[in-house]
Design a protein that fits this description.
Elements: H1 2-7, H2 13-28, H3 33-36, H4 38-58, E1 71-72, H5 83-103, E2 109-110, H6 114-133
Parallel strand pairs: 1-2
Helix pairs in contact: 2-4
């Protein structure tokens, strides 16, 4: 949040609100208990986090800036493992991505290595053939 506030103009209302929330958050934390009573210190950290989450949820979310984020996996094809391990890693990565896409329909995934798609296509077809035979 501090980095976000520092990007805004000094006299910005939004920056002022962020600084105000951060200042209050830091006041919630009882730094005197850090070494003497770690459990109580931890409790104040949780309280500060709860306050911060609540304050953030109440702040306006409108912005002229839109940030689009995409999931991506990069798998080194010529790394220190065998090709079969690369293929296995690709399959696991794509299985994970498919689960994420089921959980979060808005999730977008980018994979920029055509050879990975070729491996998956070959392996997927091979799996289908084995399943049909059995």
């Amino acid at each position: 949040m501090l980095e976000a506030a520092e990007l805004l103009e000094d006299n910005s209302y939004d920056a002022h609100q962020i600084y105000k929330v951060l200042e209050h958050t830091l006041k919630i934390i009882d730094w005197t208990k850090e070494k003497l009573q770690p459990a109580l210190f931890l409790e104040t950290l949780y309280e500060a986090q709860a306050y911060l989450n609540e304050a953030l949820s109440k702040m306006k979310k409108a912005s002229p800036i839109t940030v689009n984020v995409f999931g991506h996996t990069h798998i080194d094809l010529a790394w220190l493992w065998r090709i079969k391990h690369t293929r296995e890693k690709a399959a696991r990565s794509f299985a994970t991505v498919l689960r994420l896409m089921e959980q979060y329909p808005e999730y977008i995934f980018v994979q920029s290595q055509p050879q990975i798609y070729a491996f998956l296509k070959e392996d997927y077809l091979l799996i289908n053939i084995v399943i049909k035979i059995n």
